[in-house]
Amino acid sequence: MIEQTLTVVSLDGATAHLEAQQKQACAGCNGRCGSQVFSKLFGTAKKTFPYRFEVPVVVGQKVTLALDDSHMVKHAFAVYMLPLVLSLVFALTAAEVLSAPEWLQIIAAIGGGFTGFAIAKSRVKSLRHDIKVIKIHPISLPLTQIDGD
């Protein structure tokens, strides 16, 4: 299970829009690594995640959600490896079975890559994650010290 604590930023009826706390790519290199350079270069636009709750929540409340990661490898294979594998299969088929010239093999490889991309895109659209609410954190009021007490 992958767990993440999110903050409720807005409400739309029973649907709450949640926002994750921004995390640095890594804190061990003090901003000299490639991942932090890319995050600074491309920005970190905050995105909200809509979720429908059974119990009422309020803006500012923290919620811990969990995602089942059992299908993660299968979906990662579809997104990353399927275009590459189909590109190689199409190129090898054009070369060995059809005895096509090199320029047709390149076009076949590009066609295989686009075919793999289209299949992966259709699989990702049909993907439904099983997200569970682990904990709804209570809203804590800030404690202040009153002078003279």
UniProtKB/TrEMBL annotation:
Species whose genome carries this gene: Pseudoalteromonas prydzensis
Pfam families: RseC_MucC
Protein name as it appears in the record: Regulator
Ranges that cross the membrane: 77-97, 103-120
Highest taxon of source: Bacteria
Keywords, in A-Z order: Membrane, Transmembrane, Transmembrane helix
